[in-house]
Amino acid sequence: MIRRYKQNKIKEYQRWAVYVHENQGYLGRSVIACKRPEADDLANATQEELLEFLQIIRELKNALQKTFQTDWFNYSFLGNEWRHLHCHLIPRYQTERIFEGIVFKDELWGHNYKTDNRDSSLSLRMTHLGLFRNSKIIYF
Question: Could you cite one Gene Ontology molecular function of this protein (predicted)?
Answer without folding.
Answer: catalytic activity
